Give the backbone structure.
Amino acid sequence: MQEYIKSKLDNFYQIIEYHQGILGINDTLGNNEYLSIKDKIFNILNLFSVMDPQFETKLMKKFLNDTVCLIEHFYNIDMKYNAKQIYDEYDNKDEIKFEDFEKEFKKVLKDEKLRAVKVMNTKLYYLDLYIWNEAMRSQILTKFIKNFTTSNVFGTRDFLSHTNKNFNSICQFKINSTCKPLEVEYSKNEIGELKSLEPKEEIECEDIVQKLVDSKKNIRFFKDMRDEDIKHIVKDVKFIRYKPHEVIISLYDEGDDIFFIVEGSCRAIIGANIVGEIKQNQIFGEFAPITKEKRSATVRANTKVKVISFKLALELYEEDPYVFTQLYKNVIGELVQKINAKNLNKL
C-alpha cells in the first residue's frame, strides 16, 4: 500500500529519491538548519561573485542551479491531495477501510515531506561548504573576510556571527533556476568533489601540525629545534589545495602565512619572469612574516598543489625568547644561503 501511495504523489517521491541519491542525507544537521538561512547563503554567494569574477566555478553554478530548482519546486508544489479519490482508485480497497487508508496516506505524505526538507537542507549545507571553500582560495575574498574576523570561517552562519553588518541590503537578489528537478546530472568526479568538502574532525588539525613537525628536516628555519618548541610557536595551521596556475601569494601583498608544499610544485614570478621553482617538501613565504615586508614575488601553482600553511606566534617571544632566538638564527642562516645561491647564479 505504501508503494501505491507514493506512486500517487505525482513525481514528488521520484524527485526526492533522485536528489537523495546524489549526496544522501546528513542526519547530523538540525531541522531547517540551512533552509532557514538559504537567502543569506544566496546573498553571500552573489556578493562574492561580484567581488571576484573568478569565484564561481562551473560546478558551483551547476550545483546552485540544481539546488534552487529543487527548493523552488517544493515551495511551489500543490500538496493538497485527494485521499478519497486515491483510495477509490486503489485495487485492494476492499481489504482496508478508508479511515485506515487515509491514516496511512497522511503518514506517508508527512514522512516524504520531512525527507524532502532533509534533502534540501543537505544540498544547502554542501553549497555553503563549496562557497566558503572557494572563498578561502580567493585572495580578494580572504582580505574582505579578514576585515570582519581574524578567525577561521567555515560557513555563512559562522561568518555572520562575527559581524553586525546586514549584507542583505547590499547583495540581495532573486535566484531563478533554469532547469527541472530531474534534469541535472553529475559525474562521479563532481559528486566526489562535493563530498570532499566535508570538514574533517578537529583532531586532524593536530595531524597536520604533526606532519609539519615530521617535515622539519626540510624546513631549515626549524633546524635544531625540538618538536615541542615547533608546536608551541606555530598557529593557524591549515591544509589547502590549489588548482594548476592558481595564485597562492601575490607580489607586494601583505601577509603572515608561511607555506610548506606537501605535494606538487610552484613557480615564483616577478613581472613576466619566472625567478624560481618551488618543489615538494620546500617552503616559501617565510620571510615576510618576520621582516614585516611585503611579498617579494608572486607564487603560482604549476600543478595541483597541496600545502600546509601556518603562521608564527611571534607574540610569544617574551614568553620563550630562547626558542625564538634559535628561530631567528635559522632564518638569518637561510637568508644568507639564498643570497649566496643567487650571487653564484650571476657568475
